[in-house]
Amino acid sequence: MELTSPSEETKKPQKKAVITESVPKIAKIQLVSSHPEVYEPCDDSFLLVDALLADRLNLINQNPKFCLEIGCGSGYVITSLALILSQCNPSTQFFATDINLHAAQTTLQTSANHGIHCEVVVTDIASCLQKRLQKSIDVLVVNPPYVPTPEDEVGAVGIVSSWAGGFNGRTVIDKILDVVDELLSTNGLTYMVALSENDPSEICQVMREKGFGSKIALQRSTEEERLCVIKFWRERETNEVDREITDNGSSLNGWLGRVPFVNSLWKKGNETSNS
Ligand SMILES: C[S@@+](CC[C@H](N)C(=O)[O-])C[C@H]1O[C@@H](n2cnc3c(N)ncnc32)[C@H](O)[C@@H]1O
User: Fold this and answer.
1) Is any atom of ligand 1 closer than 6 Å to the C-beta of 73?
2) Which residue of 26, 42, 172, 190 sits with most ligand 1 atoms within 8 Å of its CB, as the best mutation to test the pocket?
3) 262 inside domain
4) What is the tens place of the pLDDT at every residue in 225-242?
5) Does residue 145's CB lie within 6 angstroms of at least one atom of ligand 1?
6) GO CC: one term (predicted)?
7) For position 26, what pLDDT does the model report?
8) DSSP states of 52-88 as a string?
9) Is the pLDDT assigned to residue 30 strictly greater than 60?
10) How far is the CA of 241 from the centre of ligand 1 (A)?
11) Is residue 114 part of a domain?
């Protein structure tokens, strides 16, 4: 290689390129809209966003085209997901549903406050979108109503529908599990919040029977509850995806191996905390 003398221009001291790892953006609490009948971002919402942040490289590599949140509430989670993904595909489309009209309106405001376009639909689970988005959702996020309550509180008008989860807190969760296969694309990923009382290992078993792999992406205890985020993906024969994701946590097999331990921790309730 021939070395040439630098021109006058290049002799000037050059600014050094500073390579920094960019801090991923999430929704700003002060830009999250609110309404008395809408669930405010809370520990469970933050746990879900933390799980998305922890898995952001997998999410970005996924190059998602369609993302959906079921039960969007204030819009904090879907807006954060959109911001986390903003550095990959600018044409990614974001959808959100809620059974509560005020929540849909609040999500529209929150996403607009962050410069995000999100299509929000008032519907039960995702019923109005199921045909349109059949097998095309690349990222599905859900923080469902998971608190064990009397069955007649499930789906009640207003804020009660935010937490009322019926028997074992599983009524709405089980309805959502039933539509994951219908919605998720071949490489699609689902992230769902669950409470220890919802029996996360049984949720994983239900999904396993439907052909999905799963793992606990993140878990955290608060004074009141022990929460986790379960990640689901379509199981492939090669276990390719399973291998891909193990860098951020244990695979289902690894996790199931520890189920008695996890369950016993959860049964003890608030005695332990690993947040
Ligand atoms: C625990 S809040 C979560 C809100 C928001 N995603 C967050 O993490 O802050 C649950 C949300 O699910 C909504 N929801 C309850 N039942 C639903 C159903 N059957 N279909 C759609 N949304 C539902 C509630 O209105 C509420 O906004």
Assistant:
1) yes
2) 172
3) yes
4) 999 999 999 998 644 444
5) yes
6) nucleus
7) 97
8) HHHTHHHHHHT--SEEEEES-TTSHHHHHHHHHGGGS
9) yes
10) 29
11) yes
CA-to-CA distance for 204 and 270, rounded, in angstroms?
Answer: 23
218 pLDDT above the threshold of 90: yes
Give the number of domains in the chain. Answer: 1
Predicted confidence band of residue 2 (pLDDT cuts 50, 70, 90)? very low
Distance 259 CA to ligand 1 centre (A): 28
Task: Please check whether residue 72 is in contact with residue 97, taking contact to mean a CB–CB distance below 8 angstroms.
Answer: yes
What kind and span of H or E run contains 174?
helix 171-183
Residue 10: inside a domain, yes or no? no
CATH value at residue 122: 3.40.50.150
Instruction: Determine, yes or no, domain membership for 9.
Output: no
User: pLDDT tens for residues 108-166?
Assistant: 999 999 999 999 999 999 999 999 999 999 999 999 999 999 999 998 888 999 999 99
> Which of the listed residues 162, 192, 222 should we mutate to test ligand 1's pocket, taking the one with most ligand atoms within 8 A of CB?
162
* Domain of 136, in residue numbers: 26-271
143 lines ligand 1 (CB under 6 A): yes
Estimate the share of the chain in helix, then strand, then coil, as percent rounded to the nearest 5. 40, 20, 40
